[in-house]
Structure formats: structure tokens, C-alpha cells
Amino acid sequence: MATFRTVKRASEFVTLDKTAIYDSELSFKAKGILLYLLSRPDDWQIYESEIVKHCSDGRDSVRSGLKELEEKNYIIRTRKRDEKGRLKEYEYVVYERPNQIGLSNVGKTNIGLSNVGKSNTTNNNSTNNKSTNNDSKDILSDSKESDETATKVIEYLNDKAKKRFRATPGNIKFINGRIKDGFELEDFKKVIDTKVSQWINDSKMNEYLRPKTLFNSENFESYLNSAEANKQEEYNPYANVY
């Protein structure tokens, strides 16, 4: 499960940098989420479900706000690895100011030691460059892995639903969006198996056995929960289709 870790100056009060407050490119929803995240202690692990509990916005609204903060570099997403180097869940590091990887350390704290006001030596610059290169390699690796997973999902859908979808950017974006949310290949297979069993013999619903319907953010998790429940449920087959 993805976690959020805040990076800010320590204080008994919620004392924050004003950058985000006056950032005209941020919605008030995103600003509110950022202020909530930064109000938490540095060593807290904050889950998406906890954010949802503390606001009247729904899950999808919170997710869009988090995505906005990530796009504006107030949140940096990294993939965690276990002791054997295998990829695990994502970790989101939250900053008071937009963090440009490798370009700025303003407001960032590394293991309790602040870089603000501290001169950078040649050795430190070399270390930062190496770290930046490693980060870039990880980002490229994650992107390649996501695209490979997306291709496997398309192939599995084609096999089960007797379709001929291609791994185009338009189809892959729905799959990569759910991978970004932390879902894995087996989750996609469960959704495909469930909806194929329900829709493949329905002339009207068969056309919705497609990436746009199965893997969009509005439908995917409910379809997955239905699959994991492993039971026949009462449902409107024409709901939540696009």
C-alpha cells in the first residue's frame, strides 16, 4: 500500500512555507491536501484512506488532488524495494516547495540533517549527481516495467475476450494509471476474467470489454472488489460504462 512521508522544517506549530499557498497553478483542493499532509509529523506514515476520512471529498477527488501535487512536484513518487531488490509499493515524499529532482534541495531534509543554508562541496555535488543518475534510471526502469505490464494486460484481454486491441498510448494510459495506483498484473487479470464471464455473451455489453471501460479510475476498483468477492451479485450491467 502506498504511503506518504512529509519533508519539512520541524516545529510544534503548523508553520509552513507560503509558496504553495500563493501558487496560482494549484487548485484549492490540492492546497488543502498539501497543508494536511505537511501538518503531520515527519515520521508518520499517511495512507490515502486516512486523507479521505478527514475530508468531505470522495476518494476520486482526493486522488486527483494528489495527482495534481505530483505533477507540480510538491509530491515525488518513488518505488520501494525489499531486501532482495524486488519492487514493492510506492512511497510519496511531500515537499513544502516544488522539488526539482537534482536541481533543488530547498526544504528537503535528509535523515534529520537540513541542507537549507548549507554550502555544497564538490564531493556533495558528485554525490547528488550520482543520486540523480540513479533516480533517473529507476524512473526509466519503472516506466519500462509499467509499459511491459500494460502490454501483457492487453494480450490477456485479447485472449480472453477474443478482441484485437493494440498496445497504443491511448489504451496503455488507462492501465498505467492503475499501476500508478499500486495495482498489479494479477489484479487486471481478475477484472478481465470477471467481466468477460459476465459480458462476453451479451451482445450489448460485449463492446465494453475494452481498456477504456475496464481500467478507468471510476470502474476498476469496483470491478476488482466484485472479482475478489467471488460471488454472483445483483448489478445493473449498463451502469458505469463509457
Automatic annotation (TrEMBL):
UniProt-annotated stretches for the region Disordered: 114-144
Domain Phage conserved hypothetical protein C-terminal as annotated: residue spans: 153-225
InterPro entries in alphabetical order: Phg_2220_C, WH_DNA-bd_sf
Basic and acidic residues composition-biased segments: 135-144
Pfam family, one: HTH_36
Biased composition (Low complexity): 118-134
Protein's name in the database: Replication protein
The organism's taxonomic lineage, starting at the top: Bacteria, Bacillati, Bacillota, Bacilli, Bacillales
